[in-house]
Design goal:
- With about 180 residues, this protein is an alpha+beta fold.
- The protein folds into 2 domains: about 60 residues; about 80 residues, Gyrase A, domain 2 (2-Layer Sandwich).
- The protein is built from 4 helices and 4 strands.
- It has a 4-stranded antiparallel β-sheet with strand order 1-2-4-3.
- β1 and β2 form a beta hairpin.
- About 10% of the residues are buried.
Length: about 180
């Protein structure tokens, strides 16, 4: 049928067909683009919300990181164990430390609270002992020092004057030698 048309009509028909084809193609591409945008917008909001949730979870994991908490706790325990170590690695053979500490504890009264002992001296005849604690008042601290001085097993008893600065709840450190 196209052969029956004149050359001008054939060109017009061909241009019109091409125009319709391009219009349909443009419409299909535009429609696909609109459908794509409509379908991607909810996914965008969903992924954006998941990203925010992930960031919140990440920040809470940093705050509540179990590994670092356990590691910090272990370091704190190790530091405390080092500080709390009262006796040297090699103890004297005859139980001398226990007897010295028992004497010191027997000499304190209820107004003296001993927090720690630091022992050094090993196998030698004279051991150095440092006693740290809290006294209720100056009078009880001085009485404790005098009881240590009157005991025959101790010498070189040093109670720094700075211990007497406070009137009550006095932190003190006494160093002495055990014979």
């Amino acid at each position: 049928m196209i052969n029956l048309l004149s050359q001008q009509k054939k060109t017009d028909a061909k241009n019109m067909l091409m125009s319709r084809f391009l219009n349909v193609l443009f419409f299909v591409i535009s429609f696909s683009f609109v459908i794509l945008i409509i379908s991607l917008v909810p996914i965008y909001f969903h992924l954006n919300q998941q990203l925010k949730d992930t960031e919140i979870l990440s920040s809470s994991l940093v705050k509540n990181d179990k590994y670092s908490q356990v590691k910090n706790s272990l370091e704190l325990i190790n530091d405390t164990n080092k500080k709390a170590k009262v006796f040297p690695a090699e103890m004297p053979k005859n139980g001398r430390i226990e007897s010295v500490l028992t004497k010191i504890i027997a000499l304190k009264d209820s107004s003296i609270k001993i927090k720690s002992f630091k022992y050094s001296g090993g196998e030698s005849d004279t051991q150095s002992i440092e006693i740290s604690g809290v006294a209720n008042d100056r009078k009880s601290l001085l009485a404790f020092k005098e009881r240590l001085v009157s005991q025959n097993g101790f010498s070189n008893i040093v109670l720094p004057i700075s211990s007497f600065v406070r009137v009550e709840n006095i932190d003190f450190t006494i160093t002495l030698k055990s014979k």
